[in-house]
Lysozyme inhibitor LprI N-terminal domain-containing protein (Tahibacter harae), 411 residues
Amino acid sequence: MRRWIALAGLLLAAVPPAVAEVKFPTAREYIDEHRPKIEKRPLTSKEKSTAKNVIAALKKKKTLTEAELIALRPMANAGDIAAMYALFEGYGDVRDVKTLFTGGSRRESEAMAGLRGLWAMALWREGERDRWLAWAINGCLDDAGGPQTGPKSGRFTATQCGYSATIELDAGQDLFRYANGQPGFAAPRSIVFEEYAMAPKLTPEEELARFQRIIAKWNQGETTDAPEDGVWIMSWVYTQGPEVRAAYSTAYDRMRAGVNAREGAANIAKREADAAAHQARIAEWKSLQEKRIAAKAAKQELDAKDEQRFVQLSFWLRGEYIVPIGKEQVLMQQWQRDDFCQYGPADYCQRQRDLAYARENAAMEERVSRANAWKIDRSRGDVTVRSYDQNGNYLGTSTMPSWQADILKGN
């Protein structure tokens, strides 16, 4: 939200009136413009030559430019399978995209991914069952299948690609598992696709009504409930005259001021709440510390629940609040020792560091011993070992390599 709001302000400030008629498409508008529109017919000689050259370029460099993809669309829309596959593969890695999108370059990848999913749908409708098509279709679904969910059937929406898919399965079928190449799973028996426009065309009257609805909210210092409103209005306002752009600019400023005021108030409230919570923890820690001191004076111990809470608070508060714990318990973490050594007595600090060094040294010795165990000569054959429990009761015998028996004997 913040990104397109900020971009809108920059664009309106930077674009002179002469450029105001330029309209950058949204990702959804671009998808609708370039989505498959299959009407089967024979290709002309020129189209065959164009398709051949573009497909050859794809095989050679593994990617296509936006211009090459657009040039190939008429042949793909004519139902040529090779051209359709080239578009499907080309939208997976598009280079040199010249179109400027409303909302910035991030929308570019959104548009290309949506079109890849749509051409996968078009090929599936033609009877193609390549698992990479299944992978793209599954990736479009809002509720994609996966190993953790089990085979899935039913009606699923594909918001980013502009269709819904009704999937019907027989035993041993699943879209995700088939796409993933999982053994034993085939493609679904049936997928029925229902397309819908991602950016429905509005009449001029509907566009004006939408604009008025948005700026009415903005003039109140609030945003609209639909995030796409901001993307749409930023593009639409470029097609309008100076009065509309002025109304947009005024409403935008009021909305931005409202957002900033609410965010500022929320940040202040959070800081105050965090400070109050911190002070409450300090007060609780001090109360428990007084109880601990009184209990020790009476040669007693603090209630286990209170003691656990005291330790928890000590590590939450850090700094000087770790000192009482550091005098009584081994501090396992480096940050705990660092805090303790900053505020605690020097002799206790040194003891904590010595204990940490001893632990690290012991761990290193254990790792070396385990590594050396694998270097022991294993050529001396197996031996039979009698086993006893801790009370000396005979448990039976077991066979193991002699080197392993030597280790047990040493232990």
Remarks:
- Confidence is low (pLDDT under 50) at residues 1-22.
- The CA atoms of residues 116 and 279 lie 55 Å apart.
- Residues 242-297 form the longest helix (56 residues).
- The longest strand covers residues 394-401.
